[in-house]
Amino acid sequence: KMMAERRHSSKKGAHASLILACLIALLHRGLANYHITQVTLLIRHGTRELLGRDRITQADGVQLVHLTETGVEQMKQIGQDLKDRYVCPSGQGHIDGLTGSYQEDRSAYFSLSSDTERTLMTAAAFNQGLWSGCNATYDGLGTDPYAGVVPVHSVAARDDLMLLGYKNCPAFHDKVEEFYSSPEFTGLAAQEEDFLTRLYGCFQDEVASLSEGAGLSDAQRTLADMASLWDYAATAELAAPGALANATGGACSSADVPLMEVLANHVEHGKYTTDGAGVYLGSRFIREAAYAATERAGFDAWGRGVAHGWEEAAHLVHTPLPHFREREDVALAAYAAHYPTLKGVLAALGTSVADQLPVVPAWGAALALELHEHESGAVAPAVGLRYHAGVNGTFELLDLSSLRGAADGGVPSLGASFVTLGDFLARVEQQVYATDAAWCAGCGNDEAAACLAAELALLRSELGEDVVGAYATAVTLALFGGVALGALGYCTMQRYACRRKRAGEEEEEGAVEFGWPPAEPPR
Question: Which residues contact 385 (CB under 8 A, 6 or more apart)?
Fold first, then answer.
C-alpha cells in the first residue's frame, strides 16, 4: 500500500511538473512572439553638485550646476545597462532596426535634454555608455570604442515642454503653494520645528530655498527645502558615520539623516503624486511618448476615440520644438530631465503605478516606455524602471494591470507588466488628457503659447470642431475688417492733410501745418 501511495504521489508530482513545464513553454512562446519596436526613455539626472545661493545663475534663472564625477559614472553605467537590453543584437529586448552601432543608427536614435548643465551632462554621459560597443565594457579611461560624439538636442528652458510647469503655468505654482499652506505640511513643520531650525542653521548658506518670499518661518522654509537638503546629503555621502557632523561643525550628526529622509519623502510625495503638481509634468511627457509610439506603430491611434483637440494641441505645443513626435523614424529616444518629471509620469498613469516608485529613488533612475508588437500585429506597451544602487543597477517592468480595460480584447497576455495599446491610450485619454484640461480650465495665463494651445484643445473638445471653425473664421474676418478700417482711416487723414497743405501754401510763407515744414512752392 505504501509503495502504491508513493507511486501515486510520484505520478502527481510528475503531472504537476509537466503542467508547470507546459505553462513555462507557453509563456516563453508568447514572449518569443513579441518584439520591441520602439522605446522612449526618461533619464533622471545623476548625482549633482549642490544647489546654492552662491551659484552662478543664468539670465533665465537656471543655476549652473554640474554632475559630480560619481554622477557622470552613474549615467555611463545606466547607458551600458540599457545598451545590453536594447541596442546589442543579442540583448533581451533588442529593438527592431538597431544594429548596435551608432555610426549605423544615427537616424534611429534621438537624444533630447532639458536645457540645464546637469541634464545636458547626463544625456552626454548616457549616450557614451549606450554606444560604447556591445562587446566592451567602459573602463572609465576613455579607451572604449565609443565612436564620435552623439548629438544632444535641447531647447531653452522657457520653451521646454517639461519645464513649462515651473516657468509658465500658474496652476502649477498654485498647486505647490496649496501644498505648502496645507495643515498637513504646516503641522509637520511645527512638530519638527526644533530639528528643522537646527538643520536650517547647518545648510542655510548651501541650499537654494524653494520658497523664499512666501512668508514662511525658518522651519517651514527648511521643510520646503528638504528635498534639496536630502539631495545634498545623498550626493555628498553625508550619511556615512561622522560625515554630517564634520561637514556642519557638529551642529548635525548622522543620527539626523533618517529624519531628513522621512521629511524629504513627505515633501516630494506631497508635490509629485497623483494629487500634486507633478502629474501636470508627467501627463505632458506621456502624451509625447504615446504620440511617438502610435506613429511608430504605423497607424493613427488618435482617431480611436481620443477627445477632440488632442492632435491639434500636440502639434501646436511642440511646434517648432524638435521633440520625439517629429521623428517618426526614431526607434530609441531618450530625454534627460529631472526627478519631478519622472515621478509625475507614474503619477499621471495612476496611483497604483505611481506607488511602485520610491518617493526619493536611488540615484540614477531611468524610466522606459517600451512598445512591443505581437506577430499578429497587436501592440502592447510596457513601462520599466532602471534603479541605480551602487555600481549594479536593476531593471524591472512595472505592474500595469490596473490600466487594463475592455479597449482591445483578445491580445495574448504576457503578464501583469503589459497592457494593450488600446487600454494604454484609454488611460491617456481618461487620465492624461483630462488632467491637461483640468489644469488649463479657467487659467488666466495668456502669455505661454503652449498653454494657449491646451486651451484651444479644451475649446475644441467643449464646443466641437464646427463651432471652433466658425469662431476662428469670425476672428479672422474681424482682424481683416480692422485692418481695412485702419487703412481707410489712414488714407482719409492723408487726404485731409494734403488739402490743409494746399490751403497753407496760399497763406503766409513759412507757416507750419501739423508740425511739418511746408512743401516747396509749385514751380
Answer: 356, 357, 365, 366, 367, 368, 395, 396, 398
Alpha helices in 33-137 (DSSP H): 69-82, 117-130
What distances in angstroms separate CA 300 from CA 184, 304, 422, one per listed residue?
A: 45, 8, 12
Average pLDDT over residues 314-318: 34
**Domain co-membership, 283 together with 227:** no
The verdict on 123 and 243 lying in the same domain is no
11-46 pLDDT per residue, tens: 555 554 444 444 334 344 444 567 888 888 888 887
Report the helix count and the strand count for the chain, using DSSP H and E.
19, 7
Structure-block grid coordinates of residue 193? 520645528
CA 472 to chain centre: 32
**Mean pLDDT over residues 373-399, rounded?**
75
The secondary structure element, H or E, covering residue 370 is strand 366-374
| DSSP calls for 145-179 | ---S----EE--GGG-TTTHHHHT-HHHHHHHHHH
Task: Give the span between the Cα atoms of 387 and 442, in whole angstroms.
Answer: 39
- For residue 374, give the CATH number of its domain: 3.40.50.1240
Domain end position, chosen among 248, 272, 296: 272
Q: What is the pTM of this model?
A: 0.68
Q: Based on the fold, state whether residues 68 and 143 are members of the same structural domain.
A: yes
- Quick one: average pLDDT of 205-234? 62
Are 392 and 297 in the same domain? yes
Measured CA to CA in angstroms, residue 8 lies from 2, 96, 123, 335 at distances of 10, 49, 61, 59
- Model confidence pLDDT, tens digit, residues 104-159: 888 888 888 877 788 888 889 999 888 887 765 544 444 444 445 788 887 666 55
